[in-house]
Description:
Largest sheet: none
Number of helices: 6
Number of domains: 1
Shape: elongated
Helix content: over 70%
Mean pLDDT: 87
Number of strands: 0
Oligomer: single chain
Radius of gyration: 21 Å
Amino acid sequence: MSEVYKWVCRVSTAVGIFAAGLMFVAILVVCHMVFVRAVLNESSIWQTEFVTFALIAATFLGAPYILLTRGHVNVDLLPILLGESGRRRLAWLATLLSFGFCMVLFYSSVHWWWEAWELGLTTPSIWRARLWIPYLSLPVGLGLLCLQYAVDMWALAKGLSSPFAPIVTNDSVPQESAA
Protein backbone atom coordinates (compact mmCIF):
# COMPACT_ATOMS: atom_id res chain seq x y z
CA MET A 1 0.00 0.00 0.00
CA SER A 2 2.97 2.28 0.50
CA GLU A 3 3.60 2.46 -3.25
CA VAL A 4 -0.09 3.24 -3.84
CA TYR A 5 0.13 5.97 -1.20
CA LYS A 6 3.15 7.52 -2.91
CA TRP A 7 1.51 7.23 -6.34
CA VAL A 8 -1.71 8.94 -5.18
CA CYS A 9 0.30 11.71 -3.53
CA ARG A 10 2.31 12.23 -6.75
CA VAL A 11 -0.87 12.33 -8.85
CA SER A 12 -2.51 14.77 -6.41
CA THR A 13 0.56 17.00 -6.65
CA ALA A 14 0.66 16.85 -10.46
CA VAL A 15 -3.03 17.64 -10.79
CA GLY A 16 -2.63 20.44 -8.24
CA ILE A 17 0.09 21.97 -10.39
CA PHE A 18 -2.18 21.62 -13.43
CA ALA A 19 -4.97 23.39 -11.48
CA ALA A 20 -2.62 26.25 -10.65
CA GLY A 21 -1.76 26.46 -14.34
CA LEU A 22 -5.46 26.66 -15.18
CA MET A 23 -5.80 29.59 -12.80
CA PHE A 24 -2.86 31.33 -14.46
CA VAL A 25 -4.36 30.76 -17.92
CA ALA A 26 -7.69 32.13 -16.66
CA ILE A 27 -5.90 35.31 -15.54
CA LEU A 28 -4.31 35.67 -18.99
CA VAL A 29 -7.68 35.18 -20.68
CA VAL A 30 -9.26 37.85 -18.47
CA CYS A 31 -6.46 40.24 -19.47
CA HIS A 32 -7.08 39.35 -23.12
CA MET A 33 -10.79 39.97 -22.68
CA VAL A 34 -10.20 43.38 -21.12
CA PHE A 35 -7.85 44.31 -23.96
CA VAL A 36 -10.30 43.17 -26.65
CA ARG A 37 -13.20 45.04 -25.05
CA ALA A 38 -11.47 48.23 -23.90
CA VAL A 39 -8.76 48.80 -26.50
CA LEU A 40 -10.10 47.13 -29.62
CA ASN A 41 -13.73 47.94 -28.77
CA GLU A 42 -14.86 44.47 -29.86
CA SER A 43 -17.07 41.97 -28.13
CA SER A 44 -15.72 38.87 -26.49
CA ILE A 45 -17.27 35.54 -27.35
CA TRP A 46 -15.56 32.74 -25.51
CA GLN A 47 -13.54 34.35 -22.73
CA THR A 48 -16.16 34.59 -19.98
CA GLU A 49 -17.24 30.97 -20.34
CA PHE A 50 -13.65 29.76 -20.59
CA VAL A 51 -12.66 31.58 -17.41
CA THR A 52 -15.70 30.26 -15.55
CA PHE A 53 -15.03 26.68 -16.62
CA ALA A 54 -11.29 26.98 -15.95
CA LEU A 55 -11.80 28.26 -12.40
CA ILE A 56 -14.36 25.57 -11.61
CA ALA A 57 -12.02 22.92 -13.03
CA ALA A 58 -9.12 24.34 -11.00
CA THR A 59 -11.25 24.13 -7.86
CA PHE A 60 -12.18 20.47 -8.31
CA LEU A 61 -8.85 19.34 -9.75
CA GLY A 62 -6.90 21.19 -7.06
CA ALA A 63 -8.91 19.72 -4.17
CA PRO A 64 -6.81 16.52 -3.80
CA TYR A 65 -3.62 18.60 -3.53
CA ILE A 66 -5.22 20.86 -0.93
CA LEU A 67 -6.18 17.77 1.10
CA LEU A 68 -2.69 16.32 0.68
CA THR A 69 -1.00 19.48 1.98
CA ARG A 70 -3.70 20.19 4.59
CA GLY A 71 -4.16 23.57 2.94
CA HIS A 72 -7.88 23.79 3.66
CA VAL A 73 -9.35 26.03 6.31
CA ASN A 74 -9.23 24.24 9.61
CA VAL A 75 -10.59 25.37 12.95
CA ASP A 76 -8.32 23.62 15.40
CA LEU A 77 -9.67 24.72 18.77
CA LEU A 78 -11.47 21.45 19.48
CA PRO A 79 -8.59 19.18 18.36
CA ILE A 80 -6.17 21.17 20.53
CA LEU A 81 -8.41 20.71 23.57
CA LEU A 82 -8.81 16.97 22.97
CA GLY A 83 -6.22 14.42 23.93
CA GLU A 84 -4.46 12.18 21.43
CA SER A 85 -7.23 9.55 21.41
CA GLY A 86 -9.91 12.23 21.05
CA ARG A 87 -8.03 13.78 18.13
CA ARG A 88 -7.75 10.38 16.49
CA ARG A 89 -11.50 9.71 16.86
CA LEU A 90 -12.33 13.19 15.56
CA ALA A 91 -9.99 12.69 12.60
CA TRP A 92 -11.70 9.39 11.75
CA LEU A 93 -15.15 10.97 12.02
CA ALA A 94 -14.20 13.95 9.85
CA THR A 95 -12.41 11.81 7.28
CA LEU A 96 -15.21 9.25 6.98
CA LEU A 97 -17.92 11.91 6.67
CA SER A 98 -15.89 13.84 4.10
CA PHE A 99 -15.07 10.67 2.17
CA GLY A 100 -18.76 9.69 2.08
CA PHE A 101 -19.79 13.15 0.91
CA CYS A 102 -17.15 13.09 -1.84
CA MET A 103 -18.25 9.61 -2.95
CA VAL A 104 -21.86 10.81 -3.36
CA LEU A 105 -20.67 13.87 -5.29
CA PHE A 106 -18.39 11.68 -7.44
CA TYR A 107 -21.27 9.33 -8.31
CA SER A 108 -23.54 12.26 -9.21
CA SER A 109 -20.87 14.00 -11.27
CA VAL A 110 -20.17 10.88 -13.33
CA HIS A 111 -23.86 10.72 -14.19
CA TRP A 112 -23.92 14.45 -15.04
CA TRP A 113 -20.81 14.19 -17.23
CA TRP A 114 -22.12 11.09 -19.02
CA GLU A 115 -25.41 12.81 -19.78
CA ALA A 116 -23.57 15.77 -21.33
CA TRP A 117 -21.44 13.34 -23.37
CA GLU A 118 -24.35 11.20 -24.59
CA LEU A 119 -26.66 14.09 -25.46
CA GLY A 120 -23.91 16.24 -26.98
CA LEU A 121 -24.86 19.20 -24.78
CA THR A 122 -23.29 22.57 -25.57
CA THR A 123 -23.42 26.01 -24.01
CA PRO A 124 -26.18 28.30 -25.30
CA SER A 125 -23.67 31.00 -26.27
CA ILE A 126 -22.22 31.73 -29.68
CA TRP A 127 -19.13 29.74 -28.69
CA ARG A 128 -21.25 26.57 -28.20
CA ALA A 129 -18.64 24.79 -26.09
CA ARG A 130 -19.24 21.07 -25.64
CA LEU A 131 -20.17 20.71 -21.98
CA TRP A 132 -18.66 17.28 -21.43
CA ILE A 133 -15.20 18.85 -21.56
CA PRO A 134 -15.55 21.19 -18.56
CA TYR A 135 -17.85 18.74 -16.78
CA LEU A 136 -15.09 16.11 -16.89
CA SER A 137 -13.14 18.02 -14.24
CA LEU A 138 -15.77 17.12 -11.63
CA PRO A 139 -15.57 13.30 -11.75
CA VAL A 140 -11.79 13.41 -12.27
CA GLY A 141 -11.19 15.83 -9.39
CA LEU A 142 -13.67 14.13 -7.07
CA GLY A 143 -12.34 10.68 -7.96
CA LEU A 144 -8.81 11.78 -7.10
CA LEU A 145 -10.11 13.43 -3.94
CA CYS A 146 -11.72 10.12 -2.91
CA LEU A 147 -8.42 8.33 -3.57
CA GLN A 148 -6.57 10.90 -1.47
CA TYR A 149 -9.07 10.38 1.37
CA ALA A 150 -8.62 6.59 1.05
CA VAL A 151 -4.84 6.77 1.37
CA ASP A 152 -5.21 9.30 4.20
CA MET A 153 -7.39 6.79 6.05
CA TRP A 154 -4.76 4.12 5.44
CA ALA A 155 -2.05 6.42 6.82
CA LEU A 156 -4.24 7.25 9.82
CA ALA A 157 -4.89 3.54 10.48
CA LYS A 158 -1.18 2.71 10.24
CA GLY A 159 -0.24 5.63 12.48
CA LEU A 160 1.79 7.30 9.73
CA SER A 161 0.02 10.62 10.11
CA SER A 162 -0.78 12.52 13.27
CA PRO A 163 -4.38 13.75 13.28
CA PHE A 164 -4.76 17.48 13.79
CA ALA A 165 -1.17 17.83 14.89
CA PRO A 166 -0.84 21.11 16.78
CA ILE A 167 1.45 23.68 15.23
CA VAL A 168 4.67 23.95 17.18
CA THR A 169 6.39 27.32 17.14
CA ASN A 170 9.72 28.34 18.59
CA ASP A 171 7.87 30.19 21.35
CA SER A 172 6.05 27.06 22.51
CA VAL A 173 9.12 24.79 22.64
CA PRO A 174 10.62 24.72 26.12
CA GLN A 175 14.26 25.80 26.20
CA GLU A 176 16.83 24.02 28.34
CA SER A 177 18.43 26.14 30.99
CA ALA A 178 22.15 26.84 30.74
CA ALA A 179 22.75 26.04 34.43
